[in-house]
């Protein structure tokens, strides 16, 4: 289990910011420690965040990746995927991700995926164009150079020339029809559809209880991967 999560609120420039993230690490936790301490600060210290949040988030992902690589954490072997969400004044949601952790929004009970799974079957061309290769061993997942099962990640210095670390970014207005947001690592999504997760989450009002129910259900379905989950319930 090499996951970290962030779920907190902060006041900045007379704005209330909800800061949420799931980091699914691999090959040690030093990269995760860096992400937990510094990722959101890389955004909030950027003046451009208040005029162009999307560009600011992209720059923060790039800055974070460069910092991890320059610190040579875990001798360059460690890395992490990420799904992050910033809620501004309870009204505007910005979601970004690299890797296969996922964010799902519920509006009128309907699941809407707010992130893109960066899997090798969809981004194989990018890996090969960068000089890498994708291999599949019997009984295993497709992997970059036989090592990593996603096409984008923070860190992974020994694979970085073949990987991307730029995020996909989506935004949504939070209105009276918006019920909740689920962020989770791939251990949940490998055994559960977006709509199944939303249907379970709608049954209870306490978001902490819902997160625990989702994780328990993933275990009941025999998930073999890391399972971390955050549920954000909106007031509307």
TrEMBL record:
Record keywords, A-Z: Hydrolase, Magnesium, Manganese, Metal-binding, Protein phosphatase
Top-rank taxon, per record: Eukaryota
Keyword Manganese attached: yes
Pfam annotation, one family: PP2C
Enzyme class label: hydrolase
E.C. designation(s): 3.1.3.16
InterPro entries listed in its UniProt record: PP2C, PPM-type-like_dom_sf, PPM-type_phosphatase-like_dom
SMART domains reported for this sequence: PP2C_SIG (SM00331), PP2Cc (SM00332)
Cofactor needs: Mg(2+); Mn(2+)
Reaction(s) this enzyme catalyzes, per UniProt: O-phospho-L-seryl-[protein] + H2O = L-seryl-[protein] + phosphate; O-phospho-L-threonyl-[protein] + H2O = L-threonyl-[protein] + phosphate
Keyword Metal-binding: yes
Residue ranges of domain PPM-type phosphatase in the record: 1-234
GO function terms (MF aspect): metal ion binding; protein serine/threonine phosphatase activity
Similarity-based family: Belongs to the PP2C family.
Name recorded for this polypeptide: protein-serine/threonine phosphatase
Organism: Hibiscus syriacus (Rose of Sharon)
């Amino acid at each position: 289990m090499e996951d970290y999560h962030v779920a907190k609120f902060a006041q900045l420039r007379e704005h209330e910011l909800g800061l949420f993230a799931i980091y699914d690490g691999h090959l040690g936790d030093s990269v995760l420690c860096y992400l937990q301490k510094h990722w959101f600060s890389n955004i909030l210290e950027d003046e451009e965040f208040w005029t162009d949040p999307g560009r600011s988030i992209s720059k923060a992902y790039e800055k974070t990746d460069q910092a991890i690589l320059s610190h040579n954490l875990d001798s360059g072997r460690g890395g992490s995927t990420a799904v992050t969400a910033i809620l501004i004044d309870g009204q505007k949601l910005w979601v970004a991700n690299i890797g296969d952790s996922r964010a799902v929004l519920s509006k009128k009970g309907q699941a809407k995926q707010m992130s893109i799974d960066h899997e090798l079957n969809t981004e194989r061309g990018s890996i090969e164009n960068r000089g890498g290769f994708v291999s599949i061993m019997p009984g295993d997942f497709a992997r970059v150079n036989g090592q990593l099962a996603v096409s984008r990640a923070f860190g992974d210095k020994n694979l970085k020339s073949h990987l991307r670390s730029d995020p996909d970014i989506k935004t949504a207005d939070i209105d009276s029809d918006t019920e909740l947001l689920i962020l989770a690592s791939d251990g949940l999504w490998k055994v559960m559809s977006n709509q199944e997760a939303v249907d379970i989450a709608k049954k209870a009002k306490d978001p902490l209880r819902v997160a625990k129910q989702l994780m328990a259900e993933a275990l009941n379905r025999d998930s073999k991967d890391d399972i971390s989950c955050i549920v954000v319930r909106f007031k509307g």
